Amino acid sequence: MILPYSIPATTLYAATFFIVAMLLLILLRTRLRLRQRRQKHALQEQVQQFFDEWLSQALMGDVSANTAFTIPDLLQPGRRNSFARQYAIGQLINTKKNLIGLAARNIIWLYEQMGLQTDSIAQFRHRKWHKKARGIYELYMMEQAGMQQKINRYTNSRNEHVRMEAQIAVLAFAGFNGLHFLDTLTRPMSHWQQLRLIDQLTPLDPGNFDHLANWLKSPNPDVVVFTLKLTDLYQQLQVREEVIACLQSPNAGIRAHAIRALIRVGNEDTPAVLVKQYRAETTANKPIVLQSLENMATDRELPFLLQLLDNPDPAVKLQGSRIILKCCSNGALLLEQRAHHGAPVHKQIFLHIKNGVTV
Amino acid sequence: MKILIAEDDNLIRKTIEIKLEREGHEIISCSEGVAALENIRTRLPDIVITDIMLPSASGLEIVSAVKDMTEKDIRVMVLSAMGQENIVEEAFRLGADDYMTKPFSLTELSIRVKKLMGIK
Amino acid sequence: MSITADIVLFFAAGLFLYAVVLISFYIIIAISSIGATRRYLHKNEYTDYRLLASSPYAPSVSILAPAYNEGPNIVENVRSLLSLYYNHLELVVINDGSKDDSLQRLIDAYGLEKVDFFVNSRIPTKEVRGVYKTRHPAYRKLVVVDKVNGGKADALNVGINIASHDYIVCIDADCILEQDAILKMMKPFLEEDKGRKVIASGGVIRIANSCLVKDGRITRVSLPDNYWARMQALEYIRAFLLGRMAWAHLNGLLLISGAFGAFDKEIAIRCGGYKHNTVGEDMELVVRMRGFMHEMGLPYKVTYIPDPLCWTEAPENTRVLGRQRNRWTRGTIETMQFHRILFLNPRYDTLGVLSYPYWLFFEMLAPAIEFAGLIFFCILASLGLINWQMFIAFLLFIICFGYLNSIFAIYIEVATYNQYRRRKEVTKLVLAALSEPFIFHPFVVWSAIRGYVDYFRKSRSWGEMTRKGFQTANTPTATGNQGL
Lengths: 359, 120, 484
What we know:
The complex is a heterotrimer of chains A (359), B (120) and C (484). Chain A has 19 helices and one strand. Chain A has 359 residues and is an all-alpha fold. Chain B has one domain (2-107): Response regulator (Rossmann fold, 3-Layer(aba) Sandwich), CATH 3.40.50. In chain B, 48% of the residues lie in helices and 22% in strands. Chain B is globular, with a radius of gyration of 13 Å. By secondary structure, chain C is α/β, with parallel strands linked by helices. In chain C, the strands form two sheets. In chain C, strands 3-4-5-2-1-6-11-8-12-7 form a ten-stranded mixed sheet, with helices on both faces. Chain C has a two-stranded antiparallel ribbon with strand order 9-10. In chain C, a hairpin with a 7-residue loop joins strand 4 (128-134) and strand 5 (142-147). In chain C, helix 7 (227-249) crosses helix 13 and helix 12 packs across helix 15 (440-456). Classes of the chains: A mainly alpha (359), B alpha/beta (120), C alpha/beta (484). Chain B: Keywords: DNA-binding, Phosphoprotein, Transcription, Transcription regulation, Two-component regulatory system.
């Protein structure tokens, strides 16, 4: 066993010396970093200044193909200026995100005039995942449609981030038609990614939903969940049967989203389907079924709803009461009677929902 | 016309500023909520253009504060990236006179501002 | 004499082994935090968090802000929280039986009215006196709860019972949050990978002393002028940028600061919410939630966001600081004590074999071992048994290693978030690090020892002062155990 005594003092001193050397090295690097940061900051300010000046012209729409335009020195192409150019791309994207119309077209014009797309393409070709992802991002933000084919190939990439950006890019270039990547997607798609994809589609006119039914049968559960969200958002009634089929899925997440989607794509038979589903569902999904019923229950479901009021769980009682109040013809009266004759908890719940406390 | 802009993104604020200044308006520019509220009270602009997500006080609070004011009838336009129905609805319920979703067109913005002045 | 020699040998060998393991841990933590931080920064380089603010598919969030005698600032703080725009948001302010006029101030400022509210007390709590809401449409996200005083854990439990949304974000009412704090905090919950459910996410706490604050937001970040606060700034950088980042990476994070953390509400409720009988309720809940997930056989993750999102005022004098550390120590001992079943229990994976033992030996027991080491040293010295040359060699080594750890943390800070931009500030931070083994560290150890004493006296008093807002803010952070 090694004991403190058995280490010669000289070894310890040597180790200490080594640590101090490393310490000094890190301090030096810290200093360098700080200096670099200051230099970068100064550069950013210069780029910013250039944009401020240029902006006032560009916004007025007085730029065109014939406009004489000189790139300032610090933004000339070349490795030396790569940081400033990268920063410029970031600023342009940021501005473009907020603008449409002439001003947005002028921003793309400037991006191309400065040859910044070559920088973006170089990033896209880079081996490192974060550079590749960033390159794709820049290319679609700046509407470089010529790159669409090349980017297309990455929608099922092994790297999560590259894949994410490529999927968004396809939608940015091709709108709803871009959703075809779902046909072949075998890798996961996080909720965050789904949210981004939906956001990308939001400003567009709804179109091409021919494949919804196929996607709802996809072996990739994330594709199914995402398709259920689309079905719901765009109220795609034609796939009602497929959505109902999803209620039988062994995946609880798929079932939950199918239950939610039925609020908008269901018909008069759906409440009965949901009541049946409620009995079979997991504890986590049961409240979701009730949430959906709140939007579509009818007097026919009243016997089931009254059973809910007798459930020992106050949360179920509360949800049940709310559905009765909202959906049944004599709901308020019914609940009031309960409130007077039933346990005190019924009265509290009645007051709670009567006052429209939604929380 | 005196127009107050509450927007935390510098470039966007500047863009709007330049555009409206060229059209001959006087601009008060704020990057956060409480400062905007103060300026509205002290400098009484004719029109307020506000984002929703602002530091220190939200744009919706600004809308309702402006509408609660009795000193002057100020028009408010919300300019936000949030285009969801319920948020737009909320803004109008609070008294917003107009709502524009980002990304927006500067030309459209200036037309809408003119329209707001016309109502006045 | 030979028995004495054996005892001495035993102690010396034990302490030595302890130091070796500790140093190895520090090195592993430092290295794994580099990779994790780099990946996080690359991943979110151009993330547009604002998508989350308005998306119909964003998770719904209830912010829980317990308040106790915060009258002078309560209205300002609530307004600042209301400006954190997020569509599926509800702000629950819990007035924990304040003796001042907190509640009346809120009623006046926001036009609150008492409403009939059915509280489903899934977690038993002290009595709720009333729930208030306003008709004013701009403040419709605000819910104020008035309850009988019961301490922070109880107040948070009431908040959990009342919260109507799927996730809860617990904060201290007097913390200053960045505008995008909720957005950044919620994103990890949408990024479940390999079917591992995210059950909780922690945020970074930064020290707000000496920073310029205007209208509830930090307008200029400065290094604290006060020595004690500055030392804590260093300590927090080290703990958050190195320690927590690495532990989160290994999925072994045990602690989410009570001042800013997000939880899956359903799981928090199924675990029984915050515990009253501990002063370390924030850590205890995380450990319990993790244990629960293991017992249910559900794959899960506890994540952590390194962006500086939450700022808090740190104690500036030894009296308050000492009491804070005293309480942290008791909280840690209590948590370790409640969950001793985890110790080296392979059923709990990383939690049992790595996180728990690490916390036990290097967080909870560190001050005790250090103190024992000191006493041992004094005895040896008085017996003339110290090899002074060796002693000095060891001391130098360990102090320098401590320095290396701190300086490395400062470097990571400069290379990533760089909150202290001026060179003078970084120099001051380095100088503070150099003074640590002689001033700050002994004090922290001493306070922890007093925590032990209090724990064994079963003193669980909170004391009026310590319940006030920010001093309860954070809980133990990985302190450097240089002086060993």
